[in-house]
Amino acid sequence: MTRPRTSIHGEWSSRWAFVLAAAGSAVGLGNIWKFPYITGENGGGAFVLVYLVCIAVIGIPIMMAEVLIGRRGRQSPINTMTSLSEEAGKSRRWSLLGWSGVVAGFMILSYYSVIAGWALAYVFRSGIGMFHGADADQVAGIFSELLASPERLLAWHTIFMVMTMVVVARGVRSGLEKAVRFLMPVLFILLIVMVGYAMNTAAFGKGVAFLFSPDFGKLSRDGVLIAMGHAFFTLSLGMGAIMIYGSYMPERASIAKTTFMIAGADTLVALMAGLAIFPIVFANNLEPSAGPGLIFVTLPLAFGQMPGGSFFGTLFFILVVFAAWTSSISLVEPAVTWMVENHGMRRLTACVWSGIAIWALGIGSVLSFNVWSDYTLFGKTFFDLMDYLTSNIMLPLGGLFIAIFAAWVMKDADVRDELAIVNKLGYRLWRVLVRYVTPLGVIIVFLNAIGVLHAG
Length: 456
Prior knowledge:
single chain, mainly alpha, Hydantoin permease, about 75% helix
């Protein structure tokens, strides 16, 4: 397969458009929903410090590798891996890496859309003052009632999937780029407003100390492994999203500089989410280690007791929806581009078919919270199984083989050509990291995730 010099799907209008798009892919529920609660569960500042180090030595090198592969191939992840493996004189079986990313993104969006649907539902619940004055049992009851209703979950899942596919169907510049140019600035503005709101609570100083004052006595070895894993997952690596976005990247843009900017934006959003959430939690004498229920049970309880809580609670859940939306459009893009390239479909047709398939798969996750809650496979519900297979197996393996392909399979001259790092020391540092350090880190994350490592 001959490698094209330009993508048939279009190109970002500028480096900044790519940064916004890739940052939008990286910034999602992991930043607003997961990062605060795993930070709370693992002691705060020490966990954050380890997480930042892992972003630098694991996340950024793999992201650079995935972007350079994408820009070199200029096609869907499947066809990119096929043409680049041929260019390097290696087996076409490397296309399986592309397939893994496309399938992972497909599976992730099917349940990601369900969780995003919860946030959509909470926008309206908060907006009508449902949490105002509610006690802990009432707030928990509202969440339980939502999960117990397959009809409601299916309705919100459907609405979010339609929102996603409408953007993707409009193409690279008219759809993806226009969406992130609007959504990402609004997301940052909403975060700033929420941090400003948190600054007016009596516990803002306590929240800052919790996030930025390391106490390594509170950090277990298991917490270090969780920090390593989240640093990898938060940047949307191994699922084809960054690879396909890289294929639309202008030739003149610096991969190294833009990758640092994307990682910086992603980390900033996660830290700002912590600054917005923890002061509110502490001000209401709630537990920061509340787990996955932190933003759907703990925070609504806090908003319900605070002046202006309904308004700011609504803003917060709009923020969560926007973060999920910018990620969801990147998850389905690899599948859509492959259908256009290999089956000659119009983009709209590819979006309709892929959207319907993902929506249908998502019904399994919807039912796993109610009708199918007693049905398990390997001790996991359908939702848990989908999350486990993608997060713990497919994404780490995808990231590992991306690093191997870029550092060991591709010709050094081709890699240098794409990265265009003038500083020789900088290039050598990246090559050492992506050849040795990063793969070792990902292997450790993978072994811990599948239960081979039992740290305590």
